[in-house]
């Protein structure tokens, strides 16, 4: 028998009906009250063409009226041409546009915190033919069949829990992440140190809840990751831009009053260079002197193509000052919203409590499925496959930038990640904008370096991701981009 909850059928053959709200007042003209409310729901778009109304017996029982009363209301609706039906087949909304605009309520003026006047969610942009967007993995390489099988296994009634799970996350996934991080990144942790979050951003939010008071100073890389900066500001923090150079974050430039520092040492976002060992030691020493904490966002560390991987800050930390955050948004899919933070024992209880009050945990079945994927070695195999593919794309783009774009950009060498940063040799927001305008016209999407900058003068250039563009499209896309540079330079 077909499950009515998963049917895709719409119209008279469907067994699914809507739960329409009807409010009755007093005991007079009940049929007319029902009719008028159903008619209003159709006309203002709450009920649309093809939707099935509740059976007369069902609605009568719910409203505590006679079935004849509901039948009469349905008959009046049909007489208006707003419904149709047949005996035993149900009553359906009929002859109404499915695109009808719903009535809008008046919007009362609401006073919000001033910080939200400057923070806005990005609006979805039209899909580009050639997408060099940063941070998007190649969805075509995701092991959909494997993932579907693992999730289906966890959705069996015998494996599902009928209560909320641990706020810290699925025990199997916490153990799997601790084991994987220990092997792949040299991070010493056990399952109790791992907290599952909704992506890396969810980890940063929990940390901010735990550590930041209104007015707290936070050091963040410049240029850096805008959502983190905006998150800290939304909690009332004063975010101080800390410059980066060829060795990563300039430790001597961190404000003395910073209580928290956010850094991407493995693959600085967006520039791409790793933080030198000397800078890592210096940052840990600074945190010790200032009694501060460090968020280590191990961004893109899985996709290292060459060179020896540097030790994580977490592995070098002997004082318990590093919160190591990671995400599966780049290695798997952003839509899964799975991330984690490995916390020192001093913050374990606080972060678990923050998770409890803010959302409890991300979907349990997906957590269990990912645990199985890691334990069976399927995740590591997927990473190796992605690493080989991304290395090939990285090389193709970097070589082309070095040769054909050398007049305008100075690409930063990197041995890891999913994008290449190419600063303009002569910084100019006007030139950057002109290139971007031309690229959009040619069906090319890329990120401008200036959008990652909070301080002025902003750095300018291109950040070219290669997760969302097919390798076969790279030559033509780069040729079109090259023409944009030529055309933009002529009008600069």
Q: Can you walk through the features of this model?
A:
By secondary structure, the protein is α/β, with parallel strands linked by helices. The protein has 14 helices and 15 strands. It has helices at residues 30-43, 56-63, 67-79, 144-154, 171-185, 199-211, 226-234, 277-290, 313-316, 345-358, 364-375, 378-404, 429-441, 474-491; strands at residues 83-86, 90-93, 130-131, 194-197, 217-222, 238-245, 248-249, 258-263, 293-297, 322-327, 339-342, 419-423, 444-445, 447-448, 461-465. Strand 8 (258-263), helix 8 and strand 9 (293-297) form a beta-alpha-beta unit. Helix 5 runs parallel beside helix 11 (364-375). The protein is globular and about 85 Å long. The N and C termini lie far apart (68 Å). Mean pLDDT is 89; it is low at 1-13.
**Average pLDDT figure:** 89
- Counting H and I runs of at least 4 residues, what is the number of helices? 14
Give the percentage of residues in beta strands.
5-15%
The strands making up the biggest β-sheet line up spatially as: 4-11-10-9-8-5-6-7
Q: Count the strands?
A: 15
Gross morphology is: globular
How do the helices and strands follow one another from N- to C-terminus? HHHEEEHHEHEHEEEHEHEEHHHEHEEEH
- Helical proportion? 25-40%
Largest sheet: 8 strands, mixed
Q: Terminal Cα separation, in Å?
A: 68 Å
Summary keywords:
single chain, 492 residues, alpha/beta, eight-stranded mixed beta sheet, three-stranded antiparallel beta sheet, 14 helices, 15 strands, 38% helix
């Amino acid at each position: 028998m077909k499950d009515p909850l998963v049917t895709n059928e719409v119209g008279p053959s469907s067994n699914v009906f809507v739960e329409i709200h009807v409010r009755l007042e007093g005991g007079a003209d009940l049929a007319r009250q029902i009719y008028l409310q159903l008619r209003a729901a159709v006309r203002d778009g709450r009920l649309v063409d093809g939707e099935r109304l509740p059976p007369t017996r069902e609605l009568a029982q719910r409203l505590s009226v006679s079935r004849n009363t509901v039948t009469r209301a349905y008959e009046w609706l049909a007489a208006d041409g707003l419904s149709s039906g047949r005996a035993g087949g149900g009553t359906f909304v009929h002859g109404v546009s499915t695109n009808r605009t719903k009535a809008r309520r008046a919007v009362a003026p609401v006073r919000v915190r001033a910080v939200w006047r400057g923070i806005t969610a990005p609006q979805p942009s039209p899909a580009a033919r050639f997408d060099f967007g940063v941070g998007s993995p190649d969805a075509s390489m995701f092991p959909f069949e494997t993932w579907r099988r693992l999730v289906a296994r966890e959705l069996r009634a015998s494996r599902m829990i009928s209560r909320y799970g641990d706020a810290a996350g699925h025990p199997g996934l916490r153990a799997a992440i601790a084991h994987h991080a220990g092997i792949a990144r040299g991070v010493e942790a056990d399952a109790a140190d791992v907290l599952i979050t909704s992506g890396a951003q969810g980890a940063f939010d929990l940390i901010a809840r735990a550590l930041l008071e209104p007015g707290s100073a936070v050091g963040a890389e410049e240029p850096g990751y805008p959502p983190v900066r905006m998150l800290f500001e939304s909690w009332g923090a004063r975010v101080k831009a800390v410059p980066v150079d060829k060795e990563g974050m300039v430790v001597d430039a961190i404000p003395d009053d910073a209580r928290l520092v956010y850094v991407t040492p493995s693959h600085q976002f967006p520039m791409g260079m790793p933080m030198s060992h000397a800078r890592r030691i210096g940052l840990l020493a600074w945190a010790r002197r200032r009694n501060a904490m460090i968020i280590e966002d191990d961004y893109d560390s899985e996709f290292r193509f060459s060179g020896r991987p540097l030790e994580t800050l977490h592995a070098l930390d002997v004082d318990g000052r590093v919160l190591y955050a990671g995400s599966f948004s780049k290695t798997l899919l952003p839509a899964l919203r799975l991330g984690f933070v490995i916390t020192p024992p001093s913050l374990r209880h606080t972060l678990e409590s923050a998770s409890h009050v803010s959302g409890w945990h991300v979907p349990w079945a997906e957590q269990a499925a990912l645990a199985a994927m890691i334990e069976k070695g399927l995740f590591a195999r997927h990473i190796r496959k992605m690493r080989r593919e991304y290395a090939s794309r990285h090389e193709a783009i970097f070589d082309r930038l070095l040769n054909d774009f050398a007049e305008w950009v100075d690409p930063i060498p990197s041995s890891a990640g999913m994008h290449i940063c190419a600063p303009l040799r002569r910084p100019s927001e006007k030139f950057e904008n002109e290139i971007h305008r031309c690229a959009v016209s040619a069906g090319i999407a890329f990120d401008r370096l200036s959008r990652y900058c909070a301080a002025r003068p902003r750095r300018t250039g291109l950040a070219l991701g290669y997760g969302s563009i097919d390798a076969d499209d790279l030559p033509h896309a780069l040729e079109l981009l090259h023409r944009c540079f030529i055309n933009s330079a002529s009008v600069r």
